[in-house]
Amino acid sequence: MTELDILATLNSQMVNFGLANPTLDIVYPNKEYNPVKGKDYVAVSFLPANSVSACIGLDAKNRCTGIYQVTINVDSGKGHKETKDILDSLQSFFKRSTEIIYLTTKVRITKFNINTHVEDPDWFRTFVSITYRSDIEN
Asked: What are 27's strand-pairing partners?
């Protein structure tokens, strides 16, 4: 298992979120996307942090932590209700203590944090940090 397996596991949950929210586009890292005015979308970024030994011993697993950053983009001027509806749905898929399993990788969500909002002439953006941890083989 590697950090790419952790990313695949988190992305698998984002796919489930997308299926539950079919009017939203989901934008993954390193994929070309041209936003269309009037079409809300969510962009994700993977920010692995550090890994430490999960317990004592040479063969101990590595505890990997990081942030799955999500940016919610809705048309500027729509107001907060639409953003709140998307946030509520996103949090239901990534709430604290959720365990996500994909293939052989298990990831636990440790925190769901709504950060700042930024508005420009076209988009109202809300930044969400989803903190995770996963123990992988050394």
From this structure: 43
DSSP state of 96: T
Q: What confidence category does residue 58 fall into, taking pLDDT thresholds of 50, 70 and 90?
A: low
Query: Cα 109 to the chain's mean position, in Å?
Result: 10
Helix axes of 80-93 and 3-20: crossing angle, nearest 10 degrees: 130
125, 12, 135, 136: which is closest to 68 by C-alpha? 12
- Give the separation between CA 16 and CA 106, rounded to whole angstroms: 16
For 22-81, the DSSP string reads TTSEEE-TT------TT--EEEEEEEEEEEEESSSSTTPPEEEEEEEEEEEEEETTS-HH
SS3 119: strand
- pLDDT of res. 73: 95
